[in-house]
Amino acid sequence: MKEIKKIATAENFTAVSVGKLNELDDYVLELTPEIKIPGKVFCGASLRTTGSEFSFQMFQPKTETGFLHTHKSHEELYFFLSGTGEFQVDGKVFPISEGSVVRVSPAGKRSVRNNGTMPLIMLCIQYQENTFMKEDAADGNILNEPVKW
């Protein structure tokens, strides 16, 4: 089974690599000994994230999540990086493809499937809902110092 590689780390950052996206199938997420999800890797712990979790997942052609799920307090963003498929929320099914982005509130009953002929690759970010406020958009500080490479 493939593992996340650490690139660099220091007090204020961590950098990792999951490898080539077309090799995501080398990962297997084991939820329990009976439930194993091929092609999925969570990255938050490796990066020491404190405000969100995220995962990459590859669905081979004609495969799907296989279950509906909801969350208690986490909203999710799904970014589709390649391939085609269908997404389902609360019984509504719609097409997704490279460049599609889907937001689902915690209570939304969701699932995804690849009904295409190529691998479907997605990035999913989950975070506590209602924590980003309008004023947070101006949180960045541009520093008056040169960039040195």
Automatic annotation (TrEMBL):
Highest taxon of source: Bacteria
Gene Ontology MF terms in the entry: metal ion binding
UniProt-listed InterPro entries: Cupin_2 (IPR013096), GPI/OXD (IPR051610), RmlC-like_jellyroll (IPR014710), RmlC_Cupin_sf (IPR011051)
Coiled coil: none
Cupin type-2 domain span: 56-125
Keywords: Metal-binding
Protein's name according to its UniProt entry: Cupin domain-containing protein
Organism ancestry: Bacteria, Pseudomonadati, Bacteroidota, Bacteroidia, Bacteroidales
